[in-house]
Fold these 3 entries.
Entry 1:
Amino acid sequence: MIYVHKIASVTPQKELLPASIDEVNESVNNVLKVVEPKYEGVPLSILRRMGKAVRMGVGAALPLINTLEFPLNGIVIGTANGGMEDCIKFLNQVIEFEEGTLTPTNFVQSTPNAIAAQLSLLSANNGYNITHVNRGLAFENALLDVWMLLKENKTHTYLLGGVEEISSYNYNIDYLADWFKKDEVSNKAMFASETEGTLSGEGSAMFIVNAFPEKAIAKIDALHLMHTDDVTEIERQLQHFFNQHLEDGQSIDVLVSGENGDIRSRHFFEASERLLKDATIVRFKHLTGDFATASALALTITCQLIQSNVLPDHMVKIDRHKKNINKVLIYNQHKGIQHSFILVSKPAA
Amino acid sequence: MANEELKHTLKEQIIKYLNLLEKTPADIKDDQVLFGEELGLDSIDSVELIVLLEREYGIKIKDPKEGRKVLVDVNTMADYIIANRTR
């Protein structure tokens, strides 16, 4: 198991969990863009070259690394697309300038591993450094990697993160493929939408994790990822996941559901809710929008819920009046084919 | 293009190509050393400036020694552009 010690994020909201729906930033043209902080601590000369994904990733992670009381043994990032905006800029330049001299910055920033690499350079960390790019399971694969690393190296500490930016090019491709809504729908009303598609989002979530329970804010008990479009398979595997990881008498207090307002994926979430008849159901994508590594922000939100023991009303779909948030299941899916379960619990005091 | 107008345009292009946040043409003096502490430019920026000269003025700098003489300040860049521009 993995213990989460520190969290940081850049999200479309001013506060990670707005207290009321009135404080929730509203989507514009079905898009939720991040509210970028001032990125203090990142040298201006380096910041000016960064694309948005790199800025969000480095901006969230660097303060965590710089305030770490123990050595960091590696940096593990999940991102489906990395700095796609810079990547397309670079490729367009190849055509526009007929394969002549190209600017290095867009190229350097365009590769998905630019975030982990930049963090390594800025923090002088020469440990394990890798970026997982498994589309809608990129963050989960990063988490799985850290899980295996901690099994081998029980005293190590890692930076784990998930980052995604909205690039206009990628947005347009996904829009044409009907992944985003064609009708104007506010994020504040997205769960009542009866149309196909979701709202586009972006963000970055960073975690300092190790195998030490002392002072941890959350414990990741188990992780399961799968590829399927069969809802009965989801139910079967979720039941198996519970059988494997919940002890007798244990139950899930809260389901953090990746419900995304797309009518085509609603049955997946309803299936997970059927197996959790006693759990409070909360949703988060009205705060973040949907993107390939949204589960990273779901984990940040879960850590915050466990820490605060408070569920903002606007997140709650079904309230089962739990007094304490001790065990949380995050269920997320991407494009109806990539699914994950992450079981998180409150560490023993 | 008159020399002063060229220098102003060049400063705008430097800001755009190097993404110099919070800088305006007025912040860059004609004789200010580009690769000094004040502007904080580095070796990657020198490549960006070479690309700027090629794209905007049709000038190709192939000899690094020549580049060192040209990319000193806005004055030296402007003089080189006037003498060598192809567009």
Note: Chain B has four helices and no strands.
Entry 2:
Amino acid sequence: MSRPGRDDSPDRLYTLTGGRSRSGPDNPFDLVTLVVAECDPVPGMQSEHAAILRLTERPTAVVEIAAELKLPVSITRILLSDLQAAGRVSARHPRKAAVPDPDILEQVLVGLRNL
Amino acid sequence: MDSATSETRTPLGASADNGLKIVVVGGFGAGKTTMVRSVSEIRPLNTEETMTQAGEAVDDLSGVRGKTATTVAFDFGRITLDAHNVLYLFGAPGQERFWFLWDRLFSGTLGAVVLVDTRRIDDSWYAIDRLEKHGTPFIVACNDFGGPTFTPQQIREALDLDPHVPLVNCDARSRESSKIVLITLVEHIQALYADPARAPRQELV
């Protein structure tokens, strides 16, 4: 399997994001934010956007989308924030806290023990 | 490109809403991908992030040609824990350049497993140092490659390991063994946060 993006020139990636290339630190998409499509792809839509909508019929993490599209994570985050701004996807962000929720930790342990 | 890959995907349940991260850090050949594969419900996937020399992920691609861009690839797998929680397991190289991207990729991670090849213990020293500085909870797991065996005390001394950090042996090829490693890590995290005096303070980005 070829590694994603390895042969992509910055020019191609720049084109993919329509020239708006700044995801910036305020981009809310975490690696494990779960993305859900809110609509079907429509004709004429940028092919990467259409591919994301097909991938996210069920909740799909940002990092899985990046791997499936063979795009760097930062480019994927830009595409996702475009789609979210257009109301085409919704995002379920991880519950970040300075200290992990003890209930969540317990749920993780139960889940791992049940594997 | 999407139809061929999406047909083989295993989708999450519709109610999944909380992604969690654990990072497996280790030197080249320490068995990171093997461990991820052992416990993952999906075939491990590979993706990458790019950063410029300044350590920033690429935000302004128009400037890339003038800078040195470095690409860091990493593997990951997935474990559905219950109807809401999904654990993503990342295999991350321990080399120096990778740590520029740690905050960007792994902020909010529950914790880390440092996977050690006991034939190359020195490979892990840097990762442990960085995790301590980041305040990321971690355990050390020695992957059994059938090489010379060291006592836990010898390994602790070689790694200059804090006595509170759990040290376990494992076989990364074994699902059961890898599962025990993850459980040991999460139990360690529970114990850390139950004791306010020792609770690490991770900086949120």
Note: Strands of chain A lie at 34-37, 60-61, 89-92.
Entry 3:
Amino acid sequence: MTIKEVQEEIISEFDMFDDWMGKYEHIIELAKSLPLIKEEYKLSENLIKGCQSQVWLHAEMDGEKLVFSADSDAIITKGLVALMVRVLSGHTPDEILNSDLYFVDQIGLKEHLSPTRSNGLVSMIKQMKIYGIAFKSKQGH
Amino acid sequence: MNLTQNTTKIYFDVASIRKDFPILSRTVNGRPLVYFDNAATTQKPQVVIDAITKYYTHQNSNIHRGVHYLSQVATQAYEDSREKIRAFINAEKNHEVIFTKGTTDGINLVANGFGRKFIGAGDEIVISELEHHSNIVPWQMLCEEKGAVLRVAPINEVGEIVMEELLKLLSPRTKLVAISHVSNALGSVNPIKEIIKKAHDLNIPVLIDGAQAIQHTKVDVQDLDCDFYVFSGHKLFASTGVGILYGKEEFLNKMNPYQGGGDMIKTVTFEKTTYNELPHKFEAGTPHIEGGITLGTAIDYVNSIGLENISAYEQELLEYATEKLSQLEGIRFIGTAKEKASVISFLIDGVHPYDLGVILDKMGIAIRTGHHCTQPLMQKFNIPGTARASFAFYNTKEEVDVFIASVIKAAAMLK
């Protein structure tokens, strides 16, 4: 699936919930059900510190594709992290760099990407794109 | 006998007080707002909002300079406010009351004006473990610049300063003690009168950070005998961006100005500037005029209710909420000092405070989550942060009930 197709899938998934509680319960479920990152990658160099919650992000290449794994100490942040990983992981650095994460707005969770939230998510997305640039230049294209 | 029900004494009519604060009748996320973030900032009564409008509608002009009518009206209103603040904290002299931008600004003023003049290499400044970053970082910066040493008095497991340890830190090298009156993260009320007395026995001046005390309890700077007392207007129901530094005249006169500019000078030549007298020496530039005026208005408002009544009512709310919260499964209170202001910091097993804050917000409840600008304190308790509910006199037991029910619901979702 393309990045766009995954986003469309998430949007229709969230369409099933007509109130905030359903949405948040779904996010919490996503967070609980996914093993996100191997313990060995939970290193301080992979840590993105937010004021409110923290995020760990690991990136590696699998052939042409950039694969992310991530985690957070707060469960709502972790659920949102899971969504970001689902959308961006397993694509080429170019696809990641050119992506527009419109699904967050569409599912009504834009407030979580406000810099004032300071939950580590905004920095994580920035870091994902930085990995895209880094691996792209490593590939020598 | 059930003592938790219907035992509220009548200190004032809370329902009518709530009508004085227009924001309290709004909804958030479709629910009636429950505002429990009063330690961060307080809401403003209509009289304060009206004072801002009145200032810009009828009084606006620059102060202390103009001979024209409006300048005199604005100056009078600003200086009347200074007098109200003086009386509120019982300072001896009007010019010992310095307008600042807030508590942080007041501490930085003392760190620069007093610290840079009187603190040198090898000298020591004593603070405590429960200080807000604002009462840590300015001293650290000063110590780095001067080669001075910051000494930190420990707290015990319930969040009280360990007096004997603090006293051990006082020595001839100590040039200043800087301690908060009330902890913002824990609510602990510190024994500042005793600390001031002991420090003075050794001729050490004391600064008190009153940001979390001034709205809850009567502060009498002469009775305390503190050398400096700082607080913010916005935590006392007035505008943001204005605060007060009280300083004893003898210190203020000896100190260098913090900032240079207009209003703080007597004469200026390119060779030499002489400084204005107190309080203007420390009030460079055009100040937050209407903010200063609203601080007087807010004080009038608080006085009309009575700080004793406010204090007693808030203590009832604190006890009620603490008792209700303590019945929750997995609750852990951070800070259970014997003497507390109306602040409750807590954690629930298996629930990250950030998640709790997000879900409560969805339910219209405003609390604070995180480290509360006290990272060293959070490290001491080995926690990432807490959830903090802080009450003002316009909050009610009914709101506490809504809060408790919402915390139970949120915890069930998050666990």
Note: Chain A has one domain: 3-138.
